[in-house]
Design a protein that fits this description.
The structure holds 2 protein chains of 2 kinds.
Chain A (H helix, E strand, L loop, with lengths): L2 E3 L4 H8 L9 H15 L1 E4 L2 E9 L4 H14 L3 E7 L14 E9 L10 E6 L2 H7 L3 E10 L5 H6 L16 E5 L1 H8 L7 H5 L2 H12 L5 H10 L4 H20 L5 E4 L8 E7 H16 L3 E5 L6 H8 L7 E4 L3 H13 L3 E6 L1 H17 L3 E7 L16 H6 L9 E2 L6 H16 L2 E7 H5 L1 E5 L45 E3 L14 H16 L10 E2 L4 E8 L3 H12 L6 E5 L1 E3 L5 H6 L1 E8 L4 H10 L4 E4 L8 H14 L2
Parallel strand pairs in A: 2-9, 3-6, 6-7, 7-8, 11-12, 11-13, 13-14, 14-16, 15-16, 20-21, 20-23, 23-24
Antiparallel strand pairs in A: 3-5, 4-5, 10-17, 15-22, 19-21
Helix pairs in contact in A: 3-8, 8-10, 9-10, 11-12, 11-16, 13-14, 19-22
Chain B lengths: L2 H6 L29 H11 L10 E5 L14 E4 L5 H11 L4 E7 H7 L1 H10 L3 E7 L34 H7 L4 E6 L3 H13 L4 E6 L11 H4 L1 H7 E3 L7 E2 L5 E6 L2 E6 H4 L12 H9 L8 E8 L5 H16 L4 H6 L3 E5 L1
Parallel strand pairs in B: 1-2, 1-3, 3-4, 4-6, 5-6, 7-11
Antiparallel strand pairs in B: 5-11, 8-9, 9-10
Helix pairs in contact in B: 2-7, 4-5, 6-11
């Protein structure tokens, strides 16, 4: 049987661990108590998975509400996947459709691989939020609407001709109305709070209602409120009260007749935490710094959705991390190159437009053959594009986008938590092969979160580094026979004084060299060095049958949607295989061979077919694409339909 | 202890014996045009480096692209020949990573003031401890003779056959305006002064900026001839000395004083030396006035140290902050990071 312990914060965890835990504090027990109380009057229905979306103004605190619901849900043992969906405008005018911020999450008693195509429950804090998000609600789904956010002004701003809450246009859905503005105000009536401050608590009312509805404990959020507002006790009091009020409202009001229970998922045993892709990436870098004993240096320029990696690393200075917010993208990468020459584990983080600016410097890193991690958190493009939305359209830029022949290894995490491993893997390759390595994350991975089985530090491999110190026979561009890596000779080492630069190097000596044969040799050598990494990465491993009619191939954050679609089709008895590529340059050695075992290859991507292009070019496979570029994760349903279509019509 | 610190542990803090000029000559053939002012700058640097008493392996020369940027290849130290305009950024990263190194930048008026202008102003503002020598020849040499951001108005160049209509930068004013703490100028043909200025730059913590007038004898020959020709030299060069009045000219008979905020020439023979400006390296406003002399007709151009104030270098603050955080939070531990905060257990 699955035994669950909520180790929230030390004091509570200890209380909880005691055999005779008091019902007042233990989350689980309290939840059960409340649940028993509730079942006296209301029916509890058990469900396997559910998708919930919070939507409101960008100033309404929807990201906070969603992430609180998500972390509480993760803590009580559900599997979960989240999709923050927010506008590029920080505080767009209140009530407008372009200011709507959403947070979608899917959680369940079984494995959850995507934040859900469509939602089952939509919490709409105002008219604009409903207008923007209704299309993501399934037919028959539930709307919890804040009627206080549907006044004439709200309706006008969101271009509703009539009030949708009253005109019958939502008859396809289960509509639950409550004036959250008023209910929040009355919960705080005796506190003499400033009206604005009081109004800002209303997201906790919505959270309380959903906590009741899905049978979640309040304690983790109450603890969070206490920490967050510890300097202003009245806000602790106000927010906690409103949270309770929302919960009580769900319990006592007549409008809800059913509440839902989602049992804990059967996750592998161990210590878990809830983590976003950008946090995981930052931590992976710190882990690599510890395991290589190299000082971590991050040169970065703020850009959505990569900036939170900079924020996260800046918090961890006690690991000796040096974070440098540079004057521009070019200084960000070139400062990192300087740090790498000095012997640091150097990193630069950015998104597509920034990667474009770093292009020339990436070429320098290729010439200097120094370790460097370049992380591109892809977003919608081209140009400024959709800064807060996700996309996978930088693959060709990553693999090919530099002047001349400038090979760089490219890897991509599949899930938010996997950003940890991939950051670590990038460091491993960079150090071992003395090369820049590009990691392709994306907006969905960066901001999305999932439960992560925390690795034990001792389970992580050490990353051996050997700085050259021996002057005897030193040549800056001599090479390791196996990896073709050149020596890392850092300034300060007596007798190894040497110059590196962007001009073509003479093989072995590293002197400037214009000789045609040497250039041809060096171009091929640099390609060979990156190519050999294929010997040092896992082989492509198919999920499902090893051969057959159809192989669905994916990379990056579409992993979850593809896996869910494949499993759905399989569950109908149709065999479908899935190959997910984490190493994109070089590809695993057996990629071509694996592809050749299937009659059809389907490649879903959030671009116009970039991996398709690479695989067609490399292996001459007639890859079929599923390409939607909406700024959103691919939908499981679309992939499922495409699989069936490809299987049926023969293409 | 991280690996770099461990590797550097046994390295000597001082050179075993005093270096000679030739110890800083690399084995590479110098490939500047015969007669280029760069040769003199290289020679003066190689003359000064032994006096700094810094082990050769602790020195790093960083450059961008351009004639001046070939400099690192010719100095027997560590070096990076970077990409166009980015020397200051590369050097900043290196200095932050390795405050123990003496990091020097060789750049030019195109590399530093045009494509790399952004990095230069920000490095001044931050005060990263790198030493920048900007070779100003008022022309693009390597790309064969286009005007640069310091070319004078009306100059005929390959890209301005009818005359340059761009207004030039005054590099010293730009540096002062961006918050540089050490601003100096010298000339390729003033070896003594150049050596002295480089020595001063080496001793200063924080960013140091030295503009060096350098003759490009192929594309812009004689750009500074009034300052370098014997006949006109004395009347056009004002050698700055801290605490000394601003006096110049063949017989030291000319001086400069202020009329309001405007510098004025004084004929000492006729008017006496009352009210002459006395140079003060720590006076920021005076530094602006001196830097501005270059664009005032009839005025000499100052060489030497215009401005030098001591303030903490960026990399020291960076390290200091890390040490502070370590003291208050304890040295980072991976287990604590991964398993700290909000976690939960799942047990079967």
């Amino acid at each position: 049987m699955l035994r669950l312990m909520v180790g929230l914060l030390v004091s509570e965890a200890q209380t909880d661990a005691q055999p005779e835990a008091l019902p007042t504090i233990s989350d689980r027990r309290k939840k059960e108590t409340i649940s028993q109380m509730a079942t006296m009057t209301k029916k509890t229905q058990e469900i396997e998975q559910v998708t919930l979306r919070f939507a409101g103004d960008s100033g309404d605190g929807m990201q906070l509400t969603g992430s609180q619901f998500a972390s509480t849900t993760a803590m009580i043992g559900n599997d979960i996947s989240t999709l923050p969906d927010y506008p590029a405008e920080i505080r767009a005018p209140v009530g407008t459709t372009y200011g709507v911020s959403g947070f979608q999450l899917r959680f369940g008693a079984s494995e959850v691989t995507t934040p859900g195509d469509v939602c089952d429950v939509l919490v709409a804090m105002n008219a604009a939020a409903l207008k923007v998000n209704l299309r993501s609600l399934r037919d028959g789904g539930m709307i919890i609407a804040n009627s206080g956010g549907f006044d004439d002004r709200n309706l006008k701003l969101s271009r509703y001709e009539s009030n949708p809450l009253e005109d019958g246009s939502l008859s396809r859905y289960q509509l639950h109305l409550m004036d959250i503005n008023k209910l929040t105000a009355s919960a705080l009536a005796d506190m003499n709070l400033n009206m604005k401050v009081a109004a800002r608590c209303k997201n906790f009312f919505a959270l309380g209602v959903t906590y009741w509805m899905f049978n979640r404990p309040l304690e983790p959020t109450i603890q969070w409120i206490r920490d967050k507002f510890k300097k202003t006790p009245e806000l602790v009091e106000a927010n906690t009260r409103v949270l309770h009020a929302g919960y009580a409202y769900g319990e006592t009001t007549e409008i809800f007749t059913v509440r839902y229970d989602v049992r804990p998922a059967k996750l592998s045993p161990g210590t878990y935490r809830f983590i976003t892709g950008n946090e995981a990436f930052a931590w992976g870098l710190i882990a690599a710094s510890v395991k290589s004993r190299l000082e971590l240096f991050l040169g970065s320029y703020p850009i959505t959705p990569a900036s939170t990696i900079l924020h996260e690393l800046a918090k961890h200075k006690h690991f000796g991390v040096k974070t440098f917010q540079a004057e521009d993208e070019i200084a960000a990468i070139t400062s990192a190159i300087g740090a790498s020459y000095g012997g640091s584990l150097a990193v630069t983080t950015t998104s597509g437009p920034g990667l474009a600016l770093k292009t020339e410097a990436m070429g320098l890193a290729v010439m200097l053959e120094l370790p460097l991690i370049i992380c591109d958190v892809q977003r919608g493009g081209p140009c400024t594009g959709l800064p807060t939305k996700t996309e996978q359209a930088d693959l060709l830029q990553a693999v090919y986008g530099r002047n001349s022949e400038a090979p760089i290894p490219v890897i991509a995490p599949a899930t938010p938590a996997e950003c940890f491993e991939m950051a670590f893997e990038a460091c491993r390759i960079a150090i071992k092969y003395m090369t820049p390595v590009l990691v392709l994350s994306d907006g969905y991975l960066a901001n999305g979160a999932e439960p992560w089985l925390v690795p034990a530090p001792e389970s992580l491999p050490t990353l051996p580094v050997r700085f050259r110190t021996e002057p005897q026979g030193f040549e800056p561009y001599s090479r390791d026979e196996q990896t073709l890596a050149r020596p890392w000779a850092i300034p300060g080492t007596p007798g190894l004084e040497h110059r590196v630069g962007g001009l073509e190097k003479q093989h072995i000596t590293g002197d400037v060299c214009y000789d045609p044969d040497n250039h041809d040799f060096m171009v091929k050598l640099r390609a060979e060095k990156v190519g050999r990494i294929a010997n040092d990465i896992p082989l492509a491993k198919v999920d499902g049958e090893e051969s057959g009619d159809i192989l669905v191939v994916g990379w990056g954050s579409t992993f979850g949607a593809i896996r869910a679609a494949v499993e759905k089709v399989r569950s109908t008895g149709v065999p479908v295989s899935h190959l997910h590529l984490r190493h994109l340059n070089p590809l695993p050695r057996n990629t071509g061979e694996v592809l050749s075992r299937f009659r059809k290859v389907l490649i879903p991507e959030i671009n116009l077919g970039q991996l398709s292009r690479i695989l067609r070019e490399r292996f001459l496979v007639p890859a079929i694409g599923l390409n939607r570029v909406e700024g959103l994760p691919l939908r499981t349903g679309d992939i499922e339909a495409k699989i069936l279509e490809v299987l049926s019509n023969g293409h | 202890m991280n690996l770099v610190v461990e590797t550097m542990n046994n390295a000597p803090a001082q050179p075993a014996q005093k270096y000679a000029q030739k110890d800083f000559q690399s084995d590479q053939d110098v490939r500047w045009c015969p007669g280029c002012g760069d040769y003199s700058i290289l020679a003066q640097v190689q003359r000064v480096l032994p006096d700094l008493n810094i082990p050769r392996e602790k020195l790093v020369w960083v450059s961008g692209i351009g004639c001046s940027s070939r400099f690192p290849y010719y100095v027997q130290t560590y070096g990076i020949h970077g990409i166009h305009g980015r020397a200051a950024a590369i050097a900043s990263g290196l200095k932050m990573a390795r405050p123990d190194l003496s990091v020097w930048v060789a750049t030019g008026d195109g590399d530093g003031m045009s494509i790399g202008g952004n990095h230069l102003i920000h490095v001044f503002r931050r005060n990263v401890g790198i030493k920048i020598l900007l070779f100003n020849n008022q022309i693009y040499g390597l790309t064969k003779g286009q005007f640069s951001p310091t070319s004078v108005e009306g100059q005929i160049t390959a890209s301005t056959p009818y005359g340059n209509i761009d207004h030039p930068f005054n590099p010293l004013l730009l540096a002062l305006g961006s918050g540089a703490g050490f601003v100096a100028r010298s000339v390729d043909r003033e070896p003594k002064n150049l050596q002295e200025v480089i020595r001063r730059a080496a001793a200063h913590r924080g960013t140091t900026f030295v503009e060096i007038y350098q003759n490009c004898n192929v594309f812009n020959d004689g750009a500074f001839s009034t300052m370098t020709d014997k006949e006109t030299h004395d009347d056009n060069v004002l050698v700055l000395e801290h605490g000394k009045p601003l006096i110049f000219g063949k017989d030291k008979k000319k001086g400069i004083r202020l009329n309001g905020f405007t510098p004025q020439l004084v004929d000492i023979g006729a008017d006496g030396d009352a009210g002459l400006i006395v140079h003060n390296e720590k006076d920021h406003m005076l530094a602006f006035i001196l830097a501005g002399l270059s664009s005032m007709p009839g005025m000499p151009r100052p060489i030497g140290v215009l401005y030098a104030v001591d303030r903490p270098a960026y990399e020291s603050d960076m390290v200091g902050q890390i040490e502070k955080v370590k003291q208050s939070r304890g040295e980072g531990e991976l287990a604590k990071l991964l398993q700290g905060g909000e976690t939960w257990q799942i047990e079967w």
